[in-house]
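Support request from a user on the community tier.

User writes: "When I paste my C-alpha cells into the form, the page sometimes reloads and wipes my input. The last time it worked, I copied everything first. Here is what I submitted, just in case something in the input itself triggers the reload:"
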C-alpha cells in the first residue's frame, strides 16, 4: 500500500440530500466513492489525488431499479450483481447483463457500480457500449435539482465528462423498446473475468423482408471514449447480408475508429478485431433470421393441428390443462411475440385452482419427477410429463453441482415451505445457482399467503415463457 490513511478524510452523511449539499459547499473538494473498485486501486497505488472522500455506497436513493411501462430506471449505485440478478434487465437488456457478468470477478461485481463505471470514464469499460446502443439517458442530481441528458455525448474526451463538480449520477434510464432485436455482445481480452477488454462490442439488429431494418453498434477500447458506429450502421441499413456487406462493414468500421497501442494490445490488432466482430454480428443476425423462419414453421404446424393434439403439444410448457386449452383456442398465432403475449393473458385469467395444477406439474427443486406423477395417468399425460421432466432437468442444471450442505438446506427449506403453504415451491431456476435459489426460498418463506401465491404465479408465468421459446425450437 503506497498511501497513508492519515492523509485522507472520509465522511458518510448517509442521505442524498446531505451529500449533494456537501458537494455544493466546496465543489471539486470532495470525491464521491461508491463501491471503491476504481478509487481504491488509485489509493493503493499512491495516486489518489483527492484527500476528502464522501461515501455514496449503498444509499437507498441510488440503489433502486424501477420498471415503468416506458423505461427501466437503474439507480447509479446498483452493483453488477444487482444488474445480473434483475429479471427485467436480463430479459430486455441482455447486453447490459452480459457486461455485468464479464466485469471483474464476483467480489468486484458485488461492489462495483454502474455509476462508478460511467464516471471512471475508461474507454475500455464493459457496460458503456450497451448504454450507447440502448439510447440510455442519465439523470444527474445536485442542490439545483435533477437534469436528464442522453448518455451519448456524456464522455467528451478521454476521462472527460459533462458532469459538473457538484453533481452525482443518480440514475441510468433505458427505454423499453428493444424487444425483438437480436442482441450481440463480445468481450475480447486475455479472458472474460478479471481482464480489461482489448475490444468489446454491444450490438442490436433487426431484419425485415430479408434486409437490415435497423442496426445499432457500439465498441469499447477503440477510441478515447466508447463509440457508436453510426456510419457503419448507416452503410448496412436496408441491405441484405452477404459477403459484400461484410467487406463494406469492415471498411467502414476501420474508417470510424481510432484505436491505440497500449500495454494490452496494438492499434492494428484492435482494428482487425473490431471489423471481425461487426462481421460476426451481421452473421448472427442472418442466422437468427433463418432460425426465426424455422420457428414460424413450428407455429404454423401447431396452428393447423386438431384442437386435442394442439392442447397435448403445448401442455408441458405450463402444466395447466385450462391454460393449454385457452392457448389452443386462441389459434392461429402469428409469431413468437403473439404466442408469448397470449400465454401471459391466458395465465392471468386462470382460476387459482388452475394455477395450482401448473405448480404441481413441477418436481421439487432438487428432485427430478413431479410430485403428482403416477403410473395411473394416461399416455398423453405421461408423455407431457416426460417433456416437462426433461425441461426441469435443464432448468435445474446448476443444482446438481451444489455442495451437499446446500442441497440439504434446500430440502429442509422445501419441507418448511410445503408445510407453510401446502404446495411445492415454484421458482424459475434457469441460470440460478443452488445458493441463489436457497436465498430466494428463505426470503419467500416470510411472505404472507396472498403475496406468496402471486409471487409463485409470476415465477410460473416466467417459466412458461422460457419453455415456450424452447418449444418453438423443437
Ligand atoms: C479487480 C478489478 C477488475 C475490474 N474489471 C473490470 C472489467 O472487467 N470491466 C470494467 O468495465 N471495469 C472493471 N473494473 C473497474 C471497476 O470495477 C468499474 O469501473 C466499477 O464499475 C467502478 O464502480 P465503483 O462503484 O467501484 O466506483 P468507485 O471506485 O467508487 O468510483 C469510481 C469513480 O466514479 C465516481 N463515482 C462513482 N459513483 C458515482 C456517482 N453515482 N456519481 C458521480 N460520481 C460517481 C467516483 O467519484 C470515482 O471518480 C475492475 C476493477 C477491479 C479492481
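"...and here is what came back when it finally went through:"
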Amino acid at each position: 500500500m503506497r498511501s497513508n490513511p492519515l492523509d485522507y478524510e472520509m465522511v458518510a452523511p448517509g442521505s442524498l440530500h446531505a451529500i449533494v449539499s456537501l458537494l455544493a459547499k466546496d465543489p471539486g473538494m470532495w470525491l464521491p466513492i461508491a463501491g471503491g473498485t476504481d478509487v481504491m486501486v488509485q489509493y493503493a497505488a499512491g495516486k489518489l489525488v483527492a484527500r476528502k472522500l464522501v461515501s455514496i455506497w449503498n444509499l437507498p436513493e441510488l440503489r433502486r431499479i424501477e420498471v415503468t411501462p416506458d423505461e427501466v430506471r437503474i439507480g447509479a449505485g446498483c452493483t453488477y450483481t444487482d444488474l445480473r440478478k434483475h429479471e427485467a434487465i436480463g430479459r430486455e437488456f441482455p447486453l447490459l447483463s452480459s457486461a455485468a457478468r464479464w466485469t471483474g470477478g464476483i467480489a468486484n461485481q458485488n461492489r462495483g457500480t454502474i455509476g462508478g463505471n460511467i464516471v471512471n470514464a475508461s474507454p475500455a469499460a464493459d457496460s458503456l457500449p450497451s448504454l450507447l446502443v440502448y439510447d440510455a439517458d442519465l439523470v444527474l442530481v445536485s442542490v439545483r435539482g435533477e437534469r436528464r441528458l442522453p448518455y451519448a455525448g456524456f464522455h467528451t474526451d478521454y476521462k472527460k465528462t459533462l458532469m459538473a463538480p457538484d453533481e452525482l449520477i443518480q440514475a441510468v434510464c433505458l427505454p423499453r423498446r428493444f424487444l425483438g432485436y437480436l442482441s450481440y455482445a463480445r468481450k475480447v481480452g486475455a479472458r472474460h473475468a478479471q481482464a480489461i477488454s482489448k475490444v468489446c462490442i454491444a450490438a442490436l439488429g433487426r431484419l425485415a423482408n430479408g434486409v437490415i431494418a435497423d442496426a445499432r453498434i457500439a465498441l469499447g477500447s477503440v477510441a478515447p471514449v466508447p463509440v457508436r458506429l453510426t456510419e457503419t450502421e448507416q452503410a448496412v441499413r436496408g441491405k441484405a447480408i452477404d459477403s459484400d456487406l461484410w467487406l463494406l462493414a469492415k471498411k467502414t468500421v476501420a474508417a470510424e475508429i481510432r484505436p491505440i497501442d497500449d500495454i494490452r494490445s496494438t492499434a492494428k490488432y484492435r482494428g482487425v478485431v473490431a471489423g471481425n466482430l461487426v462481421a460476426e454480428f451481421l452473421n448472427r443476425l442472418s442466422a437468427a433470421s433463418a432460425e426465426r423462419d424455422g420457428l414460424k414453421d413450428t407455429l404454423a404446424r401447431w396452428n393447423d393441428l386438431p384442437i386435442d393434439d394442439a392442447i397435448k403439444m403445448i401442455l408441458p410448457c405450463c402444466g395447466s390443462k385450462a391454460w393449454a386449452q385457452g392457448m389452443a383456442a386462441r389459434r392461429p398465432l402469428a409469431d413468437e411475440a403473439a404466442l408469448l403475449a397470449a400465454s401471459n393473458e391466458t395465465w392471468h385469467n386462470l382460476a387459482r385452482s388452475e394455477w395450482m395444477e401448473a405448480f404441481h406439474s413441477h418436481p421439487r427443486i432438487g428432485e427430478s419427477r413431479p410430485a403428482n406423477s403416477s403410473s395411473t395417468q394416461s399416455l398423453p399425460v405421461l408423455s407431457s410429463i416426460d417433456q416437462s421432466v426433461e425441461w426441469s432437468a435443464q432448468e435445474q442444471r446448476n443444482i446438481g453441482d451444489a455442495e451437499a450442505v446446500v442441497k440439504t438446506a434446500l430440502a429442509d427449506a422445501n419441507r418448511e415451505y410445503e408445510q407453510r403453504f401446502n404446495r411445492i415451491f415454484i421458482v424459475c431456476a434457469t441460470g440460478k445457482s443452488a445458493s441463489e435459489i436457497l436465498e430466494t426460498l428463505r426470503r419467500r418463506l416470510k411472505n404472507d399467503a396472498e403475496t406468496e401465491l402471486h409471487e409463485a404465479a409470476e415465477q410460473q408465468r416466467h417459466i412458461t415463457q422460457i419453455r415456450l421459446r424452447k418449444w418453438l425450437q423443437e
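Agent notes: The reload is a front-end session timeout and is unrelated to the input. The chain has four domains: 5-55, 64-175, 193-290, 305-473. The chain has 19 helices and 14 strands. Escalated to web team.
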